[in-house]
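User: Let's play a game. I give you a shape written as tokens, and you guess the letters that built it. Ready? Here's round one.
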């Protein structure tokens, strides 16, 4: 039942961050076999606001729904390809990293979110 997948991490960067360290705000977990994606963002924005008190966390949170809708319309692979290098200065996506999916995508995505978004 193991399947190949990817994870893409979405990071927020403050314009005044000279060290360019950023903070993780979301993940996209992809099941390559089904071309489905699970898009999860933070539930708790305290780390983002501690990093940048001026961050528009409501706007960033709304982006989750936009990405989920886009993934349903165009497929996960197309979503990841479209996001590569196109989010801008404040939000950036990592390169897709391979993962093994041993459980349903929603379960794996929740596990990955707990790892990357804490």
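Assistant: Ready! My guess for every position:
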């Amino acid at each position: 039942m193991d399947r190949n997948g990817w994870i893409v991490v979405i990071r927020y960067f403050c314009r005044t961050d000279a060290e360019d360290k950023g903070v993780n705000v979301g993940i996209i977990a992809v099941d390559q076999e089904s071309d489905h994606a699970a898009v999860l963002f933070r539930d708790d924005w305290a780390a983002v606001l501690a990093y940048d008190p001026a961050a528009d966390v409501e706007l960033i949170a709304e982006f989750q729904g936009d990405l989920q809708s886009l993934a349903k319309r165009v497929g996960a692979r197309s979503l990841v390809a479209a996001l590569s290098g196109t989010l801008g200065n404040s939000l950036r996506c990592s390169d897709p990293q391979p993962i093994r999916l041993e459980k349903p995508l929603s379960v794996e995505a929740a596990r990955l979110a707990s790892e990357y978004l804490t």
